[in-house]
Amino acid sequence: MTQLEAARQGIVSEEMKICAEQEGVSPETIRKGVEEGVIVVIRNSIHRSITPLAIGKGLRTKVNANIGTSKDHADLELELEKVRISVAAGADTLMDLSTGGPIRAIRKAIIGASPLAVGTVPIYQAAVRMLDEKKAISEMGADDLFDVIEENGEDGVDFITVHCGVTRTSVRTIKEQGRLLGIVSRGGSITANWMSCNNRENPLYEDYDRLLEIAARYDMVLSLGDGLRPGCLADATDRGQVQELILLGELARRARARGVQVMIEGPGHVPLKDIQANIQLQKALCDGAPFYVLGPLPTDIAPGYDHITSAIGGAIAGAAGADFLCYVTPAEHLRLPTLEDVREGIIAARIAAHIADIAKGLPGALERDARMAGCRNAFDWQGQVGASIDPEKTRRLLETSPSAKEEGCTMCGEFCAIKLGKKEAGK
Q1: CA separation (Å) from 61 to 318, 354, 377, 419?
Q2: At CA 18, angle to CA 13 and CA 24, rounded to 5?
Q3: Distant-in-sequence, close-in-space partners of 109: CB < 8 Å, separation ≥ 6
């Protein structure tokens, strides 16, 4: 029985109870949210070594960290160190996006090392397998793709990104309207090229019921991918993106009918003024399904700083109702991220998520800021370190002021406004 099937029968599963305790809500809140499709509980039914995680309406905004190898950098030990860094930095989930080296062995090692839920994009492995066999990706058959998805389930993968909305119709819509940057999703591009070469429909759309059977078998959450997301502001909210989103809403309903939980991905690069409308559109078309956003990035010109760009967009998206932020690192668009890139990306996304939680009125979010203010007022430096989102960096940068007798940092020293204010008040 999947989490969704249990919820429909009025059953509060052990996973729901654990998630309720984590979130500070009642188990019935989680059960009802799962039943309605506005909350997902993530944990593969055979992946028992992790704590389940709930994502969705009324819950803390979650953060995902992408890791994984490429053909140019296939170092398993480095990826396992990224797991450690991601956990220490406060990520809620990991996605293994490996495209280099022995992908299944890497995935198993990451799952074994991670205390967090792990997601993947199975079409990457299917495409690499074709190349390893000295075949063109266009020679991949439907069975090749579904076999890899089955493997992911067997290995304990908790959620998978599948580009089911990249269809001949949605791709044609992009071509008819025209785009400055075309298709920027790797999975979306692989799928579009496969359809073009084979003159056939996307197997994940055409044989969607087969995908649902596999997902239900392992209670894997389907993250319906934004394969046609805009890769630059000029392409944002175009007909191709919206056509795909309409299809994803229909597919989400079909998944729920089969007892399979779903999230929706989107929307990539979006001007600041259009972010809220994009969130509202997704929620309307997909019946409130949890929204998993990459960014969104409200400018295209900040390579090296895209973790900041993404945090700006993510805070606005989260405040508007997005539930799950995929981090973006400073290395986005430039290279495979380093350990420091991973850490910086996670912290930036967590800042955005916390800002969003304050805007949503999530219980306890604003109280954390009040604790920080109290510690500052009391010159409680260790309290400030503990209340900060990144205690390690806060501690490293802290420099108290001798001129202010440690009641102030070296920014203002004896002219510390709080110190002077207390003298004025006679405290």
Answers
A1: 7, 7, 29, 36
A2: 120
A3: 76, 79, 80
Q: What is the per-residue pLDDT for 407?
A: 87
Domains of the chain: 3-360 (3.20.20.540), 372-424 (no CATH)
Q: Whole-angstrom Cα distance, residue 423 to residue 233?
A: 52
Given a cut of 90, whether residue 405 has pLDDT beyond it is no
Residue located via tokens 């204010």: 421
Residue 423 has a pLDDT of 74
pLDDT of residue 424 exceeding 90, the answer is: no
Predicted TM-score of the model (pTM)? 0.97
- Residue 115 and residue 19: Cα distance in Å, rounded? 15
Q: Are 225 and 263 in contact (CB under 8 A)?
A: no
pLDDT cut 70: percent of the chain above it: 99
Residue written as token pair 């019921």? 209
Instruction: Write the DSSP assignment of 161-209 as a string of letters.
Output: EE-TT--HHHHHHHHHH--SS----HHHHHHHHHHHHHT---HHHHTHH
What does 97-148 look like in DSSP terms, one character per residue? Answer: ---SS-HHHHHHHHHHH-SSEEEE-HHHHHHHHHHHTT--GGG--HHHHHHH
With tokens 């940068």, the residue in question is 397
CA atoms of 283 and 352, how far apart (whole Å): 20
Would you state the pLDDT for residue 421?
Answer: 87
Q: Is 394 helix (H, G, I), strand (E, B) or coil?
A: helix
More confident residue, 189 or 414: 189
| Residue 344 confidence class, pLDDT cut points 50, 70, 90 | very high
CA torsion 412-417-418-423 (nearest 10°) is 110
Mean pLDDT throughout 4-24? 98
